[in-house]
Amino acid sequence: MARASDNRHKLLVTSVAWVVALAIFFPILWTVLTSFKTEGAAVAIPPQFLFFDWTTQNYAEVWARTDYLRHFTNSVVISVGSSLLGLFIAIPAAWSLAFSPTRRTRGVLMWMLSTKMLPAVGVLVPIYLLFKSAGLLDTRTGLVIVLMLSNLPIMVWMLFTYFKEIPRDILEAARMDGATPGRELLYILAPMALPGIASTLLLNVILAWNESFWTLNLTAASTGSLTAFIASFSAPEGLFYAKLSAASTLAIAPIVVLGWLSQKQLVRGLTFGAVK
Amino acid sequence: MTMKQCLLALCAGIATVCAAQAGAVTLTIATVNNGDMIRMQKLAGEFTRQHSDIELRWVTLEENLLRQRVTIDVATQGGQYDVVTVGNYEVPIWAAQDWLVPLEDLGEDFARDDLLPAIDDSLSHDGKLYAAPFYAESALTMYRTDLFERAGLAMPESPTWKFIRKAAERITDRENGVYGICLRGKAGWGENMAFVSTLAHSWGARWFDMQWRPQLQSRGWQAAVSFYVDLLKKYGPPGASTNGFNENLALFQAGKCGMWIDASVAAAFVSDPRQSTVSDDVGFALFPSRGTLENHGNWLWAWSFVIPSASENIEAAKSFVAWATGKSYMQLVAAESGWADVPPGTRQSLYSSAEYRQAAPFAGIVLQAIEAANTRHPSEQAVPYVGGNFVSIAPYQGIGTVVGQQISAAVAGQISTRQALANAQYIAEREMTRARYLD
Amino acid sequence: MASTHTGATARLMLSPAVALLLLWMAVPLAMTLWYSLHDYQLLMPRGNDFVGLENYVYFLTDPAFFQSLANTFALLAGVLAITVIGGVGLALLLDRPMHGQGIVRLLVVSPFFVMPTVSALVWKNMFMNPVNGLFAWIAQVFGMRAIDWLAEAPLLSLTLMVAWGWLPFATLILLTALQSLDAEQKEAAEMDGANAFARFIHITLPHLARAIAVVILIQTIFLLSLFAEILVTTNGGPGTQSTNLAYLVYSQTLLRFDVGSASAGGMVAVVLANILAIFLMRLVGKNLER
Question: Residue A22: which of C9, C90, C107 has the nearest Cβ?
Fold first, then answer.
């Protein structure tokens, strides 16, 4: 009796959850579907959901018009590069904040976070002039630096909250055994903190991949990332929904797939101290 | 300053300097993402075949983004681009600042004297040419001959605004998704203000008096803008306040507009059966006038290539500019994709070509519109500026943007026309004071 | 001995991050401050004279300034409300046993990975467009007038768009927090005869308080400088109805090319962000204390 009602309950939860999940996912699904339509079918009324003439022509056109691979490579280099570089700086910082807290620890953290609230465009011209004199305009190096700096606060904080959860007794024990801070970090902390580091890395790759201000304003021909790729499709002439959809799909597919594959990893560290 | 040096040192420390490819010259070219430019990119293989030592790199962007990026770069002498696509708004302002390389000796194929005089004039500063026009446009009335016939209307070659209103009323058929008129409503100095400014000029209004005082609350502006807002609200498509050139083009091509008054470059797109569902039923007329005034607003726009003076490859850039805007490029396009696709509006020789006239039935009226555009005297009243669909002064981008927002809000029904113009006047005075045109 | 040693090392390890951030903050900030006191117009170079507070007066008297301030907070409040309430609901739903849980979760988190520019383009063109959009078609099917979303309700449209992207983030954090809720605690409450609602109010919600605080803090950081979505969809309009502070600064920089007033605007935004930050830290910090 109880089991039957449990089953019915589970079925109900299942159907509600699927409806909600599909509704949330629908815009992405619709974009992917539209990318396989002809331009005419893309704006047809009533909308055609599955039964239309599937075509890959939009992809062919988008592919022929732009250098997708170059944009893609730039996105990968910039997002992974800035995240890795950020980790090198953020790990020691978060380590010291978490294990040698002082009265100012909270203040330092909060100050770091507040730097992210400034509108980037307000400092565009100063940064542009700096980059110009440093020869960093339209270089991957320049973008890696800028994106690393703009995501550093989030990285430090995320790692800090993760490190704080690591039991201190283990460190005490290691220190008794005479481990230096460097060894302590490398051999004891790092393995334990690996999930947190991995998810920090992932989150920052995602944030950097999707960043659209600096990647658009400090680049020209050679380092344009996928955000620049999308910008060249945002308002072409005439009917463009299908081509826009194809370009959109190409721009988001890599990161969505990465997100799916690593979702478990990402979630494990994505608590920001929300869970005791 | 020490801070700056610190950062520089830091950057230099981390930087892995990418060495430029030895020998070959790489040109970075910024273009707008419209059909003609994209075709040119496809054909550019021809150029690199002729110049094996030059490599081309493209930055193709949507118009507003393009303008922002290149303006910052050119004004700060950033030197990221060797060739930049701009309009005739920027050319005289930038040339006056010495930010551009004068385009002399572009070669025989370029033939400056073949350019239409109105275009040449709009791209020159102190008699020197600073930009090479890729294509140019005035504005036209495009309409659906089938709908006009059904409604028993005949479009005059030079329509009046009164006639346009009457026709819009008769053609509108909301049940079947046909709207009498499509016009730009999306805020922006290059979007709705291009139209509204031309409309106001054709109405006899002016942006500024001879002391540079904004005139946006004058009777002419009130009448012209009320007419426009009312027309769009009654006979325009839903969402008119967010429709720009591209959106209206899509609507017209899909058969949803009875009339569309916009840039003449659209004539080729609406008559192209490959992209337009109404290509067989399109007619053309001049930009409307007020009837008593023989003034069609003086819309003139030329997408052109300039070479920033910060470029390090000026000679190679010149040879590219000469190729892309020269006479033989027209022949190349004609051979590759047909005469109708040749970038219009820049050369006399194009309009005297019989093949072009045959392939592009709208050629005559486009030429007529371009030749009639008098940007030195856009209004019947005296003005201190050059312009038509814009005003060629540096603060205009800011003013046009904000005035455009206000008028767009009036089209969306958020504020009254009177209020919109009052706000616009206040902002225009503020900006002109800031720019020190006014005390 | 050991503790001073580690203390010094700790400072040494912290210093690169702090130094870099200081530079990142201080250099542009110093330049911005300098420009904000000078007459620097990119398109009208005229000597870059010192002008005192003129740029500030100009920026603060912009007719759109107060509206942009209000819009900034309206967007923030709207998105936070939707993501927190929706996130709690979704987390409760996803926490239950169901068929195909893995796939459901993947579908729900997906919007978080989508580039804001792409999401804005898709919503604007394929959903909210009053002629060709899907919403217009739905309205038509039900015999209603097609709403021109971006013109008639620009702030609401933006809020929905942005909330769609952040909902998965809130859900994930809240779900993780929910899963750490002691099963024993839940059972004990159930034994006491508390009904589902009472259990939610007295046990689940207090447990989630910390996670909610985190969601609010992180999202606020990103939403205060919300910009790309506005640029792509409404351009701050119609009029200035969807202009927020970041967009207003943008219009000074990239539409008027007035570096002086943009810098003044940047400084104003910095001050406001810091006021809000202090306020937030008080509110959220308490929740984050152990």
Answer: C107
Reported as a single tens digit per residue, the pLDDT across B148-158 is: 999 999 999 99
Who wins on pLDDT, A51 or B2? A51
> Chain B residues with CB inside 8 Å of C58's CB?
434
Quick one: what percent of chain B has pLDDT higher than 70?
95
Chain A 183-212, CB below 8 Å of chain C: which residues?
Answer: 206, 209-210, 212
Contacts (Cβ under 8 Å, ≥6 apart) of A92: A185, C13, C14, C16, C17
What residues of C are in contact with residue A231 (Cβ under 8 Å)?
117
**Nearest CA-CA distance, residue C237 and chain B, Å:** 6
Question: Which range, of A66-70, B96-100, C51-55, C145-149, averages the lowest pLDDT?
Answer: C145-149
Amino acid at C125: N
Where are the domains positioned within chain A?
Answer: 2-60, 67-269
Identity of the residue in A16, A150, A181 whose CB atom sits nearest the CB atom of C9: A181
**In chain C, domain spans:** 19-288
Same domain flag for B338 and B385: no
- Asked, for residue B114, whether it belongs to a domain, the answer is yes
Partner residues linked to C17 by β-bridges: none
Query: Model confidence over A257-272: pLDDT tens digits?
Result: 999 998 888 877 777 7
In a domain, B439, yes or no: no
The single-letter DSSP state of residue A188 is I
For the segment A127-178, what is each residue's pLDDT rounded down to a tens digit?
Answer: 888 888 899 988 999 999 999 988 988 898 888 888 887 777 777 777 777 7
Q: Is residue B13 part of a domain?
A: no
Q: What is the pLDDT of residues A119-139, one digit of tens each?
A: 788 788 888 888 888 999 889
Task: Report the pLDDT value the prediction gives residue A115, as an integer from 0 to 100.
Answer: 73
pLDDT confidence of B99, banded at 50, 70, 90? very high
Number of domains in chain B: 2
Residues B266 and B384 in one domain: yes
Q: Which of A67, A232, A241 to mutate to test the interface with B (most CBs of B within 10 A)?
A: A232
**B130 - beta bridge partners?**
none
Domain closes at, from B363, B392, B415: B363
Q: Which residue is listed with tokens 């929300």?
A: A274
| A92·C16 Cβ contact <8 A | yes
B14 assigned to some structural domain: no
| Interface contact B238-C150, CB threshold 8 A | no
Distance of alpha carbon C97 from the chain centroid: 32
C19-288 CATH fold: MetI-like fold (1.10.3720)
B contact chains, 3+ CB pairs < 8 A: A, C
Nearest CA in chain B to A133: B8
Half-sphere exposure of B267 (CA within 13 A, CB side): 29
Q: Are residues B309 and B387 in the same domain?
A: no
Residue A183 distance to chain C (closest CA, Å): 12
Do C31 and A267 make contact, defined as CB atoms within 8 angstroms? Answer: no
Residue of C nearest to A31 (CA): C122
Question: Using CB atoms, which residue from B10, B75, B427 is nearest to C42?
Answer: B75
Please give the Cα distance from B323 to B345 (Å, whole number).
17
pLDDT in tens, B11-46: 444 433 333 344 589 999 999 888 889 899 999 999
Domain A67-269 falls in which CATH fold? MetI-like fold (1.10.3720)
Asked if A237 lies within 8 A of B246 by C-beta distance, the reply is yes
How far is the alpha carbon of C219 from chain B, nearest alpha carbon, in Å?
27
Read off the pLDDT of each residue in B92-104 and give the average, rounded to a whole number.
94
Whether C237 sits inside 8 A of B409 (CB atoms) is yes
Select from B363, B395, B417 the last residue of a domain: B363
Cβ-Cβ contacts under 8 Å, C150 against chain B: 239, 242
If you average pLDDT over residues C35-39, what whole number do you get? 92
Q: What range does the domain containing B235 cover?
A: 139-299+374-434
